[in-house]
Design goal:
- Two copies of one chain form a homodimer.
- Chain A is mainly alpha-helical.
- Chain A folds into two domains: 94 residues; 332 residues, Neurolysin, domain 3 (Orthogonal Bundle).
- Chain A contains 21 helices and three strands.
- Chains A, B: Belongs to the peptidase M32 family.
């Protein structure tokens, strides 16, 4: 990535300038979004949202402008491509993709959609609070309609839903996901059944109680520091829905949510978002200010959050090192709980209604349900009105439980209110990528578990930086996974990992 | 201000849209500035500054665009003006003023200046820290040169320095300021001399010590709440240099700086910025989103911060109410200090080197020194190189003391590093406006002091809202002062106020 060439071509120079401006506006928008979610005074939010909308629309306008089209046309000519360095070439390619997609949307339609989704997020919050799906349904129906219209404008790839998948995971298709999810189901459902019939449920009583919030904060900060999160290039705050946002590689912000009666919620939330943050903080400096300075796909991004949260953060090796520190933070509360007992407790498997509280194993079943529903919406014309019924039936079928209310059913996730259809599969893709990457790490470094148990997390972080983080968007998801592991994405690594882990925890023999 | 007319004229509609966009960008820039000063991670500041510069330049471009020129030309025609409501008319007038001024600056020159001043602020911080004036001098010389060039481009009004004064206090001139400052000097210097020769210095020993920062924070918040600062429409944070910024009327942010060994620094800082904030929070809702939604001048703005800080916050009536609460916050530390003793302590008069730590009386001498130096720079060609010598000579002459270093002399203030020449007089103008306004308040409501002593600050805030705050930029400074007090700005009110206050405190008979 060192071949940054002189922009002797004035059109190349202008292209760099324009993409940099777009990136800078995105950085500013991310800062404003963070502010609105973490501490902006309530009464200023209305005007702030409007200002945010105006700058968003301007950013969209720049990225779809006639000037951008001309620059891309010029720089995509064979003789021009040949003269480009690797970064410019990739940036032209990626920008062109977004340009082609976005310029198919009439700006007025896009602006209407931005306004709709920004209203819909509040409507969803309200509907969830009041368990009032009918109050949210009209918004959702409109958002679905917009997306159907977008698919039409963008052009159907394979199936209509494929067009949406491609936004979050470039190149991903329903046929590929059907296969991957089918494989997962075939191995994970029997595993979950075996666990359920085993009956020997780990003790989790010690995870409930009253845990000093200040101590929780200290411990989250401590763990993040040990993971290699750079607090001079980021910060940790609180918000209702935890998130991570990379403003630039020197300013990556994560949030979590502390619950006094729950020891693990904020902690694993912090580690999860911390994984996203390690990615964003370690993108190569030469990509800063380009549109390539971001994660390559949501699947790869989730692979890093879930690798750190689960494969590191919920491993016995990790807690062998850090459990005494946790005990120290809550004097008297965990004295009679051994590390093995703690490890079993944080890995209990149980069918549950809420995705973000699900264990590592059943989590994927939650994702499959959403994936199937989204497919039905866009490939089979399922309407917003029918969603609660379909949702509840699928939970009954896959997990054997039915939500007592829409608030803990179809209304639980923020994604659809923002129009993020096609995003959910990223979580399971992330789990699969993570397992495949972690498997490789352990092959290359057989003492990895021991080093983690010794508190040495830096070697893992550095290896992931080398293989994933520093590349930003210079490599596609498939290039990332193939260059690290030598093969394309496989479901088997996740299945193997989960089987090994849970057979041991549940003594399934 | 209720006559908002329909924008049946498409050019009026477009003008509203464009000015709203500029205002929205200014709101976003203010949020980013606040973030950079309060908690943005160190390593992200470089790229953030660049992004900030890009959006600033775009905002400047919008406000000087050919389109803006055409809209203003159209809306300034007699028949168009007649059709405008009061808000539109005033906004056309004010926007035209900025347009005329800004379009005289070549955009490239402006951009260079933005970059220079943003670098200069860091250079100044470093130079101040290291007491290295020569390290800052080249920046300052360039900034002065830019401003000389700007004055030339803008056109000289009266004297060159008048052109700069007009930016911060529309209509203000050196001849007017010479007169006002001359009057102040004639009465305040003898007063300061009388105090110095009195020798009976109030005890201030109890203001030094170790004061719990958490308790200081609680007390600042308590006082702000009682002043009527709306924490649902604002927040209080910490920064190295305290400031107030109104993002929109529903989001006004102030900062202060807590020192463990100084009880009053953060407290009066909070009240000062709180005064600015009351102004911004109480601008009429119908001005939101227009360029009139801001204070009318820096002088009027400072009148509000200094009115609340000094005429309310350093009054005996105020402390009769709030002193017991302060004592409670610092148990054991102020038990033996009576309220009268405390009041005398926080009002000690002493020639000092640092403006922001100066008492109410000598504060104005600090301002006069800066005013005279700025006049010399722009009207007599004084160079950056000569500044330390002139500075020290003026302090010797006016206050009888000489800085031991440039750090506590010519380098003490941030203003010049940002190019804010012509700003300093605002502080003394603020003091004069404040005294004249407060005098009127007491005439209209003879029991004002008693009500303050009873902790009732709302009536004062509401009266100021009616007379000052709600108008935003709909009225000019002279219209504000005349409509409230029935006369133009006079120095006598400030002199009377200070004489009365200090004769009593120092028992000058």
């Amino acid at each position: 990535m060192s071949d940054i060439k002189d922009a002797s071509d004035p059109k190349l120079e202008r292209f760099r300038e324009l993409t940099k401006q777009i990136k800078q506006y995105e950085e500013i928008l991310a800062a404003i979004y963070w502010d609105m979610r973490t501490g902006a005074p309530r009464k200023g939010i209305g005007l702030r949202s409007e200002a945010y909308g105006t700058l968003s629309a301007e950013t969209f306008r720049l990225s779809t402008s006639a000037e951008m089209g001309e620059l891309l046309d010029h720089l995509s000519q064979p003789e021009a491509i040949g003269a480009l360095g690797a970064i410019d070439r990739k940036q032209v390619e990626e920008t062109r993709k977004d340009y082609e997609r976005n310029r198919k949307l009439p700006p007025e339609l896009y602006r209407e959609y931005v306004v709709l989704t920004s209203q819909a997020e509040s409507a969803w919050e309200e509907a969830k609070r009041r368990d009032d799906y009918p109050g949210f349904e009209p918004y959702l129906e409109k958002i679905i309609d917009f997306n159907r219209k977008f698919i039409e404008l963008w052009g159907v790839k394979g199936t209509p839903y494929d067009t949406l998948l491609d936004i979050y995971e470039p190149g991903m298709t329903t046929s590929e996901l059907d296969r991957l999810f089918g494989e997962l189901r075939a191995r994970l459902v029997p595993l979950a059944d075996a666990i359920a019939s085993r009956g020997d449920k780990p003790d989790t009583s010690f995870l409930r109680g009253t845990f000093d919030i200040a101590a929780q904060k200290r411990f989250s900060k401590f763990i993040l520091t040990r993971m290699g999160f750079d607090f001079e290039a980021g910060r940790l705050d609180e918000s209702v829905h935890p998130f991570a946002t990379g403003l630039n590689p020197g300013d990556v912000r994560i949030t979590t949510r502390y619950l006094a009666d729950d020891l693990t919620s904020a902690l694993f939330g912090s580690i999860h978002e911390g994984g996203h943050a390690l990615y964003e903080q370690n993108i190569a400096p030469e990509l800063a200010g380009t549109l390539l300075c971001t994660g390559t796909s949501m699947g790869i991004h989730e692979s890093q959050s879930r690798l750190w949260e689960n494969m590191v953060g919920r491993s016995l090796s990790f807690w062998k090192q850090f459990y005494p520190e946790l005990q120290k933070q809550f004097p008297g509360q965990l004295d009679n709980v051994g590390v093995e007992q703690f490890y079993r407790g944080i890995n209990v498997v149980e069918p549950s209604l809420i995705r973000i509280e699900a264990d590592e194993l059943t989590y994927n079943l939650h994702i499959m349900i959403r994936y199937e529903i989204e497919k039905m919406i866009f490939n089979e014309g399922l309407s917003a009105k029918e969603l609660p019924e379909v949702w509840n039936a699928k939970y009954k079928e896959a997990l054997g439980i039915v939500p007592g209310s829409d608030a803990e059913g179809v209304l639980q996730d923020v994604h659809w209110s923002g129009g993020s259809f096609g995003y959910f599969p990223s979580y399971s893709l992330g789990n699969m990528y993570a397992a495949q990457i972690m498997n490789k790490a352990k092959t290359l470094r057989p003492d990895l578990e021991e080093r983690i148990a010794a508190g040495e997390l830096a070697p893992l972080k550095e290896w992931l930086t080398e293989g994933v983080y520093r590349h930003g968007k210079m490599k596609n998801p498939s290039e990332i996974i193939e260059s690290i592991t030598g093969e394309s994405l496989k479901s088997a690594f996740l299945c193997d990992y989960l089987e090994t882990k849970y057979r041991e925890i549940y003594r399934l023999g």
